[in-house]
Amino acid sequence: MEFRNPLSSPLFRGIGYGLGAAALAALLFAFGVHVGYRKAAFASRWTERYERNFMGPHPKTLRGRFPPSAMGSAHGTFGRITTIALPELTISSDRLEQLVVTDARTTVRQFQHTRTPADLRVDDAVAVIGAPDADGRIHAKFIRILPAWPTIAPDGRYSPSP
User: Fold this and answer.
1) Is 72 helix (H, G, I), strand (E, B) or coil?
2) d(CA 65, CA 71)
3) Residue 100 in contact with residue 89, Cβ under 8 Å?
4) 132 partner at 20 to 30 Å CA-CA among 15, 31, 63, 77?
């Protein structure tokens, strides 16, 4: 009687390949779940802090410890454009002016549309994210053109900005 090695049989080899493929698929699935979880967690945290990231801290969080003029942000700013002399912009808000420098790598967005720094206009409301330099300027990496801010009438009613 001849004894054959069961490890060399086609059935055993097929089962081994099947288990290996299933293990690889499970590993890839686990990696995808991990990446998806990280992306979802980042998006959730970004959404929770969206207003604070673009509009500055909520007044109740500081409880009057610092005057608004002392709260400049080194990595970004928001406000209205007061002067444009490309590649430089001056952004004003809360008695604070920031000089912003644009370059070819600066991304300008308005809603879903990509714009250029030349499309910016005086009195546009913008949020700027960038990197500070030694001269106190912000080198803009991203500029978001915000919708017009409403104005508050003396009687407390809101009206759209012109």
Assistant:
1) coil
2) 10
3) yes
4) 63
- Residues of the chain above pLDDT 90, percent: 44
b/e per residue 16-27 (b: at least 16 CB within 10 A): eeeeeeeeeeee
Beta strands 88-93 and 158-159, pairing class: unpaired
User: Please, what CATH class does the domain formed by 75-152 belong to?
Assistant: mainly beta
Maximal CA-CA distance, the chain: 105
Q: Is the pLDDT of residue 8 over 60?
A: yes
Tokens of 107: 């991304």
Q: What is the mean pLDDT of the chain?
A: 81
Backbone CA torsion sign across 5, 10, 15, 18: positive
142/127 Cα distance (integer angstroms): 8
Give every CB contact of residue 143 below 8 A, 6+ residues apart in sequence.
100, 102, 106, 107, 108, 109, 117, 120, 126, 127, 128, 129
pLDDT of residue 56: 58
Which one-letter amino acid corresponds to residue 153? A
Task: Name residue 8's amino acid.
Answer: S
Residue with tokens 């644009």: 102
- Cβ(100)–Cβ(132) below 8 Å: no
Domain boundaries, the chain: 7-48, 75-152
**pTM score:** 0.50
Read off the tokens for 134.
Answer: 């030694």
